[in-house]
Amino acid sequence: MIVIDPMHKASIERPSLALQKIRELRRRRRMMRSITGGFRWLVVVITCVWLMFLLDWFADLPMALRVGQIAATVTLLLITFRAILLAVRTPATEDQLASMVENASSELEDSLITAVQLTDPENPRRHLYNPELIKETVKIAESRIVHLRPGRLLSWRRAFSTIGLLFLLVCPAIVGGWLRPDLLHTFIERDILLGNAPWPRAYQLVVTSPEDTDLVVAKGTSLLIDVLKTRGGSARAFLDVVFPAVEGRREMREQLALDRKGTSGFRHVFQNLQRDIQFRVECGDFSGQWYSIQVRARPRIEEMVLQYEFPEYTGLSSDGEDSRAGSGHVKAPTGTRVNFVARTSIDVKSAVRMDGRPSGDGEIVTESSISVEGGNTLRGDFIAEADGRWWISLDSEQGFTNDNPIVWRIAVIPDRAPEVSIDEPGQNIEITPRALLDLSVLVRDDYGVQSGNLIFEPELEGEWEPRVIALDEIGTSEVLTADGSQKLQIDLASWQLSAGQRVQYRATATDALEQLGISRTWILSVLSEEELERVTQDELTLLKERLEETFSVQREVRRELEDLREALNSGQEAIDQAPVARHARGGQDRVSTRVEDAAERLASIAERLLRNRMSDATELAWIQDLKDRIDALGSDTITPAREQLERLAARSASGEATVEDADEAVDAARRVERGLSDVVADLQEWGDLRTVIRKIEELLRSEKDLEHRIEEKVREALGGDSTDGGNR
Question: DSSP letters of 694-711?
């Protein structure tokens, strides 16, 4: 056993050169660990980024998983960084370094570690060894470590391996970012900034229409979907369409194939949209984002009520049923104020009334604002002044307009001037200066007649003063009447008319708008009583000639019927005589018409005589009696004869006519012929008498003219005036 003196303990020196080499080795080792650890941490970072990218790219992680992925990655990087940092900061002991040096160099033969351990003041076992032995060991270690280089003991192999691995991870990322920057941008957007950008795929499509993912469109419109393919092959593109559930309708989902548009485009049109839809574009590995289309109804007019305020000139009440209308069509007098109340299908934010009026070949459109109450009630008014059309333009809260509004018609009823007519006598007539003129005036107007007048004027100006007679019963300035008539009788005796004058007269009427209506102008020809009698006689002469012709027609009718009877007696077929029967019936109709005309002519002549106060005329009583006889002839004789001939014609056409039927028809025609013969005979007798009277009157006038001429000759021969000649 070797005993070491404790007094020599402090005299043992440590191997300074060896310790210096160990310190250099420690510093170099820490530096290499720091570099290698940094590269290793970068490898971990790049690996985590690759894993995040690949997981999200293939699985298209939702937001929650992406947030968890980032949290896990950050946690792993922090743990790795801490482990590398701790490994770098923890120094190696002298014993560990000495052992590492001895393992790397066989020349030391455990002398270095022995020298380091036995000279360590903290080593409790150092006093167990001989100091001389320790010194000798230190001396040997110092001599052998002189040529030792610390750099030869440490290798960069791990660092180079880490750099190689880092290169393998970084280069693909750099190349991929250069070739596919869209992937890099999407990764940053999704996994760094936590956005929702979709991952680009082998197929990349861009929806060019619509531009917004959330869109509100009007019900009934069409939606154009335009898609442009920016990358990919020739795969078909589809629309994944979802119809959300609404009241009364369940959710539906379907896939629609897009129509190709050119070489790199697709298109689809949703026609007549009626409900909300959601869709996205799919093609190959591409799935686009969802588009939400909300379909909202356009505003429209659902109810329209009109209230008319009629102008004063019409005299119409604005409170009656006629002043209200349940539609937008306007039919009212000119100047009517139209108040309207309309209700819309949905709330609107603004409304404008449009008024279109024809102008030449086009139309002038004016706008006027409308008040909106409660969102769906519209109130407004306008004046109906001209024909046209009107409609209401609406803007809803969603910005929709009623592109095809209801168009209503405006039909303005103009107030025309009054229509005035003189119904009686209603023709140009002849009168005597003392005649009683019966007149009947009829006036019609759209709304009201205010006043009326009868105006008489001389045809030649200055013959006498015009006269105006007010028609008080037709209208007044206070009370308006739509229609009016008045009959009046005018005594012309006080007008001091003279034969040969012509008086023109007309009726006028004024409505509430001071519009003047004028009747046709008629002429009163003033005749003397003698001239009127001659006119009457001439008319009677013409009537006589007319009735003589009628008598001839009636005689021909009777002869045709007699021939028909003879034919039936001889055994001929009745149907063969149908044309004869029809011809006879037509002749009898002509006789009836002429007889009726003769009765009217006689009534007119009698009325004229009475109108002109010629009731004492010798012809009046005879004319009235003749008129009564002709009326009786028409009703008692001609009418039964026409009925009998009608039956005969019908039975002849059917082949059933008999000789008895023909006999009855012949008898009826003979009765008419006898009646006409009596009338014609009376007219001929009157005509012969009037001819004699006219010749006598002409002789008397000739005698009187002769007397006047003789008297004139005597005066000229005596050379004096008529007074002196008379005294002598």
Answer: HHHHHHHHHHHHHHHHHH
